Amino acid sequence: MTDYERTVLEHYQLSTAYPLEWPAEKDTSDVSDDGEDGAAKLMDTRMAVRRSKSRYSALERVASDRRSLLPGSQRTGDGVENLVQKDEPDPLGNGDSVLKIVRALGLPVQDDTKLRNRFLLSSTTFSPALFLSQVHSTASNQDLLEGLDILSKSIDQKSASLKVLVESNFERFVRAKQTIDNVYTEMKYRGIEPVPVRARTHSRHASRGSFRASSGNQASMAVSPLDTRKKNALTKESEYGILGIKAPLLDVSAKAEEVWGPAIGGREKEDSLKAMTTTVDRYKEFYEVNGAIADAIKRKDYETLVEEYTKARRFADDAKKLSEDLGTTAPTESQIHKILLGARLWHDVEEQIEDFKRELWRKLIAMQNTSSKTDGNGQQDQHMELIGLLLELGVTDNPIWVWLLSRYDHLKNKIQVTADRSRVEIEVLRRRLATGERPKTQVTASHLRTLGRQTASEKPASIDSGDIIELWEKMVLFLSNMLSTQGILGEVLEFWQTVKSFIEGNAQKSLPEGLNGESRQHHRLSDQGSIDLQKGTVELIDMIRESIFSFFAEPPIEDISALFSPVPPTPKTPKTASSSQLTPTALRGFDLDPNNIPPSPKRGEAWEKFAFWPPWSNSISGVYYLAKLLVLVGTGASEMAAVAPVENSEGNALDRLRTLVSGSRERCVTAICAAWNRDAENIKVLEDWRRSPEKHDLTRMPTYFNSFESSVLTGMQKILYIAEAKSGSADVILPPPAKLLQMVRSQFVTTLYKALSGMVENAEKAIKKVDDDWITDTNGLASPVATVIATSIGSGNVNASDRNVRMLLTLSNLQALRVEVVPNLTTQFENAFSVKLTDETKTIRDVLGQIDARLFQSFTRPAVQKLQTIIRNGIADSAWAPAPDEKPQEVRGYVYEALLSLVLVHTQVSTTASSLTSQVLSFLLEQCSRELLEAFKQRQRYNLASLMQATLDVEFVAQTLSQYTTDKASEMQSQIYQELDKGTDNDARAKLQSELPEMRAVLKRLREGSRSEFACFKKVRTRGTERRASEKGPDRGTSGAPGTPI
N or C: which end of the chain has fewer CB within 10 A? Predict the structure, then answer.
């Protein structure tokens, strides 16, 4: 034993450095009863117990309570302190060191403190027999007697000193006794003398207010508080003063037992612990497997997880094999430990792995957002990672099959939910539009006019109202979600690619086979499973096809209560097929009252039969958005037809896809034709009576009409042929049938006729004068922004309240339509649909001719009637015929009056629609010639003077209007001369020939005299002059005649 160890043993009063149990003497009370020092020592000890944080506080307390200045002192069980020296002289006087003598005898007194104390007289464990038998084993009787004398003298000497000590301190002992008694009384009664208990006598007065006293003081009387002064009293109730510290001492004792019990359990555990340590060191990595697996799961370090699981599995298999190999042979301790460790290890690991597998199954089933691509590092998709991990850990069910089935169920539910939900939302928006008011004509006109300010390829931002555009966009979003490669169809196609990869065995190449190849059986799908997956893919495609076809083919749904029922999860946000719920208020525009569902009105409108057509939508927005919808349908159908199970199916899957495309197209064409027809009836509202900036003799109506018809034809071509759709190997987009082409041809001709009729109606119906920017009268005809009188071609606005102005502009518009717009539209139709409109072109030409003739007659009728009245009254007047001997020198007044009326007509036509001037004046010249002929027929005979007068009148009109002479007018003039010739004789004819030179002179003079009045009828000299005059806005009737502002 080293000096340090010996010092430790002596300091803590231990007999050995490896005690087997807690020393019993350490449990005895060490509180002395000798006065104030003992009480102070008790308090110090209590405080030390509370404050101590040291592991060795129990041992340190023993050392700190030592009062002896001499080392080795200790207390016995009765509390009496004994002074045990490290060494002392022989009490029998045989030497100076007892221990030296004992060590010489070979006894281990240095290592064994108890044995040493038995040889020391100052120790309470001193053994006289042992002392004499060992230390004085060779002593004689004489030596023992001498030693006895020495011992007696020593005892007497110490007794005398003690006696002197007691005598000199007797008073102190008395005072100490009195102090102890006082302290005892103080602790017992807390300074209060005991009061003798008296027997209580009965009193009537006490019972008078007994009820009130008992009721008022019931609380205080019911519970008598514990007298805290007796807490530390030395009574039985307070356990003689230790009740207050008993519980803390017990707690400290239990804590000490808990802390030090294992530490001082005993030496007999040492070997067992060493053996355990050796075993733990040997199988340390297997002891750590359970924690490593838990840590790997927490960190999602699946590679480490698989390694640790494989290690544990192999160790457990080895232990199992060892147990089987032993049979009836008794195993060694090491083998027993290995078997037990393997069983325990595998139990814990399997429990963790099974919980982890359940979590993996849950994640795999919920894993629906997949991608067939890999990232830049070549990492697999997450679902493949989960499948690989399950295969690595070993499972009974095939994770590939389970995931494919869960994916199929998810897609099936998603298709149904998306289709139903979207159709209900579209129907709600459709009903809101249907219950609204019919759009006003000026609003419709403002939308259709936007076509003249943008190309057909631009996105029409204002071709219809905002609510209608919103519904169109909702439909586009619905079909895009269903049929685009970024939507549900893309997920179905990706699902098929995944299924195909698993069926062909390509996807399994990167999957693990598990421990000992246990998961290899899951790498191959069964033949029936492959067939079922292919049928499932066809079923998913049929669900998509059916949802889209029903949207186009079926009428609007009547029951929209699904909007207010528990809403299935939306297809955009769920993590699983049945996760989060949506309420109607969660969607914009669908915060509806279940008790106030929008009705589905029946007004007899054509759009009420179509779920895909927004109410009151015009044909322009219809062709634009339906073309986009059919592109999605055509592309989606081609993508679906390219899927191998569909393409190779024995059923009619391809035929159903063709029916989807053709049926949707036919319904779209039917809806557009109805809207096209309605817009053609209302096309008249586009007339704003503003001149075209390019051609001032036209309004903007031809441009608007051309843009409208061209846009409809362009969109109709896209709808019929769906050329923008991406077609696959299977041909599901067939050419349009003749039935649809004939429907479009008929509607094209009909819309032209209705549009032209509306233009004529605009010209013939009266327009109210208003101050508003736009207003319509009871007939729905458009009025101009402001009513101003047009006096020149350069003016943008015209006097639309003047019927003649409206008719002239309409005639000019019809001429432009007949010459340019309609032929261009016909050519566009023929090129777009690869047909020849031979019969339709003739019909359109005839219709235009009829409308033009009717409107022309309507415009010229007042002028013709006026000419008829003037000419017939003038010729029939008795003053018309000159005297027989008089040579006429002037034309009659009716000629001037008729020509002046034509001047007014010329002015109005040339300033309103200059291109019609020649046509109108030529027609009026013909009518004037006709009236002259009819009027001259009324006279039977003409003498020379009358013949000269008639010739002068006819020639003056003919020469003045020579610019507008036509073959028919010339023929009429010839007939007039023939009629005059019939009413005269040969003499007058001969004399007339001689008078012709003079008549020419008179006619020349008259022409020169009326040049200024009829200058508008003069022919334009040069084309350059005419061009400049046209640019400046002058009248086209004569050169140099200044134009009048409109």
Answer: N
SS3 614: coil
Q: Which residue has the higher pLDDT, 464 or 632?
A: 632
Give how far Cα 788 sits from Cα of 50, 689, 794, Å.
Answer: 111, 11, 13
CA distance 352 to 293: 8
Lowest mean pLDDT among 259-273, 456-470, 643-657, 842-856: 259-273
The pair phi, psi for residue 956, each rounded to 5°, is -65, -45
CA dihedral 448, 453, 454, 460 (to 10 degrees): -40
Phi, psi (deg, nearest 5) at residue 757: -65, -40
Distance of CA 779 to the CA centre of its chain: 49
Residue of 521, 579, 537, 534 lying closest to 400 (CA atoms): 521
Instruction: Measure the CA–CA gap between 884 and 876, rounded to whole angstroms.
Output: 17
Token pair of 908 as six digits: 């109005």
Q: What is the pLDDT of residue 747?
A: 92
Pair of tokens at residue 259: 């802390």
Q: What residues contact residue 681 under an 8 Å CB cut-off, 6+ apart?
A: 754, 758
Q: How confident is the model at residue 633 (pLDDT cuts 50, 70, 90)?
A: very high
The greatest distance separating any two alpha carbons of the chain, rounded to the nearest whole angstrom, comes to 223
The predicted-structure confidence for 75-106, as pLDDT tens digits, reads as follows 444 444 445 667 888 888 878 788 888 888 88
Nearest Cα to Cα of residue 486 among 664, 636, 298, 688: 636
Residue positions counted in the chain:
1046
* Separation CA 612–CA 473 (nearest Å): 11
The highest-confidence range among 202-216, 379-393, 542-556, 764-778, by mean pLDDT, is: 542-556
In whole angstroms, give the CA distance from residue 750 to residue 745.
9
Long-range contacts of 288-292 (CB under 8 A, 24+ apart): 289/315, 289/345, 289/349, 290/345, 290/348, 290/349, 290/352
* Assigned token pair, 713: 């034809």
Can you list the positions of beta strands (E) in 820-874?
A: none
SS3 271: helix
Residue with tokens 């009188």: 789
Which DSSP category does 820 fall into? I
CA distance 652 to 658: 10
Strand partners, 691: 699
Alpha-carbon distance of 36 to 649, in angstroms, equals 109
SS3 annotation, 401-445? HHHHHHHHHHHHHHHHHHHHHHHHHHHHHHHHHHHCCCCCHHHHH
3-state secondary structure of 82: strand
Residue 587 is encoded by which pair of tokens?
A: 């969607």
The secondary structure of residue 965, as a DSSP letter, is: -
Burial of 204 (0-12, 13-18, 19+ CB in 10 A): exposed
What is residue 917's three-state secondary structure? helix
CB neighbour list of residue 867: distance below 8 Å, 6 or more residues apart:
898, 901, 902, 924, 927, 928, 931
Amino acid letter at 874? G
Q: Which helix (H) or strand (E) holds 74?
A: strand 74-75
Helices (H) and strands (E) in the chain, counts: 37, 2
Hey, what are 334's tokens?
A: 């090491």
The CA–CA distances, whole Å, from 136 to 34, 114, 141, 819, 868 equal 40, 20, 10, 158, 184
Question: What six digits make up the tokens of 30?
Answer: 């060490």
The whole-number pLDDT of residue 772 equals 40
Q: Which residue has the tokens 């690989």?
A: 388
Residue with tokens 């002891």: 287
Does this model's pTM top 0.85? Answer: no
Q: What is the pLDDT of residues 740-752, one digit of tens each?
A: 999 999 999 999 9
If one counts every other C-beta atom within 10 angstroms of the C-beta of residue 72, the result is 21
Closest CA to 194 of 183, 205, 186, 202: 186
Distance CA(829)–CA(740), nearest Å, equals: 14
How far, in Å, CA of 909 to CA of 917, rounded?
Answer: 6
